Amino acid sequence: MGELTSIKEGLEQIKNALIDFTTSDKVQCSKLDTYIFVDLAPFNIINSSLIGILGSIIMDPKIQLLALCGVQPSVADILKRFGVITDEGRARVYASSEIKDNLSKVFTFNSVEEGLMCLNPA
Question: Which one, 7, 64, 83, 89, has least CB within 10 Å?
Fold first, then answer.
């Protein structure tokens, strides 16, 4: 992704990359499972447009796993408030049925490396 000059720019780059990737024919026409790993370690805040994209990814039937890696406590609090992640793994009461049905796709990891290790447990 290159060097980040601001948090806003970095979040915008992640958002655009996620949109480009998830809407690409390579993903949408593939018969393979798609796993997405998002490194949020550089960020201590997250914006609503990225949260919206994460919600779309959660509901996308082509995406089997959304791994949020390096989530700092302040970002985790925001993601919990919006119902993207939960402590107990259940969606909030007000969440749409699409979110409730697909929340099990979302995992958080301390690092990208830890997330990748879950794909091939020893």
Answer: 89
**Contact present, 80 and 49 (Cβ < 8 Å):** no
Number of domains in the chain: 1
Using the predicted structure, report yes or no on whether residue 6 has a pLDDT greater than 70. Answer: yes
Residue of 119, 115, 92 lying closest to 40 (CA atoms): 115
H-type helices in the chain, by residue range?
7-22, 25-28, 48-59, 73-81, 97-102, 112-117
Q: Which domain holds residue 78?
A: 7-112
Q: Is 105 inside a domain boundary? A: yes
User: Is position 1 within any domain?
Assistant: no
Residue 29 confidence class, pLDDT cut points 50, 70, 90: very high
Dihedral of the CA atoms 49, 54, 55, 57 (nearest 10)? Answer: 130
